[in-house]
Structure formats: structure tokens, C-alpha cells
Amino acid sequence: MSIEEKLKREFGQYKQTVSCPSSIDSRMMALYRSHNVQKRGGDPMVRKWNLSKLAVVSVLAAVLLGFTYAGVSFLFQESKGNISVKMSAASDKLTLNKEQLTSISRSLAEVKQQLQTGESAILYFADLEGEEVLRGKPLFPVSDPAVNGDLEDWKLIR
Question: C-alpha 10: how far from its chain's center?
């Protein structure tokens, strides 16, 4: 038998008899962590955000969202089923009185009654043309959608 084979066998037998206690593993991990903390200037597992930074960020977000929400004014909404028509303005300069609102909603209802199922129309209100917020486009869409309650019939039509 060659010397190499003898050494392999002896090292194999020695390897099976040698064992490392678990206390050494935990000690080595603690030394490694302390070395990393000293090297990097802090524990990598510690969060960098503190409460004051989080409070400032949340207050800024709330203020910005408040200004965004306040910038949009809601005029009216009409919905039926899964179709809805909303009218909103980006400024508070537009104020419609009750007469204008009732005339708009009455006109929308009249045109909707005249529509056949599946048709759409656009209403033009000349008296709202001068309103600055509407930017010269006082158009209101109206539709009478075709509603099919049976999914199987709808699939056959498609």
C-alpha cells in the first residue's frame, strides 16, 4: 500500500472521531457580528427609520393628498347599472344654481327616454358655454345601454 493511501485512510478515521462543540460555533458567530458592526458602523439588522422621520413623511403625504382632494369639485353624477356619468370641475369657480342643475338633469332624462336600447347621445348646453371651468366644452354624454342578464345568451351573441 502506498503512503498516499495510508494517509487518506488515517485522515478519514481521524475525521470521524473529531467533533466541534456547539459553543465554539455560537462564539464564532458573535465575533463575526461584532466585527461587522465595528466595520460598517452599525448593526445591519437595526431599522434606519425612527419615529420622528416617519411622522414627518406621513404629515407631508397627508397635506399633499388633502390639496389634491380639495382641488376637485364634484358637480353631479348619474348612474344606472354598471354605467355612470360624473361631472366634476378642477376649480371652485363654477357654481351652478339649482335651476341649472334641474334643467341639466331634466334634459338628460328626456334624451335618455328618446334613445333606443344600445344608443348613445351627447347633449350640448349653450348657456354653459361661457363657464370658464368647462373650457368651452359643455358636452354631456347620455346612453341607454343594452343590458343582457343571461350570460349564455350574451356568449351566443358574441
Answer: 66
The reported pLDDT for the residue numbered 136 is 54
| Nearest partner of 143 among 124, 115, 104, judged by Cα | 115
Length in residues, the chain: 158
Mean confidence (pLDDT) of the chain: 75
Query: At residue 6, what is the residue type?
Result: K
Provide the grid cell at 115.
Answer: 334613445
* Rounded CA separation 120/33 (Å): 70
* Segments of the chain scoring below 50 in pLDDT: 92, 133
70, 95, 85, 74: which is closest to 145 by C-alpha?
A: 85
Closest by Cα among 145, 87, 101 to 121: 145
The 8-class DSSP code of residue 116 comes to P
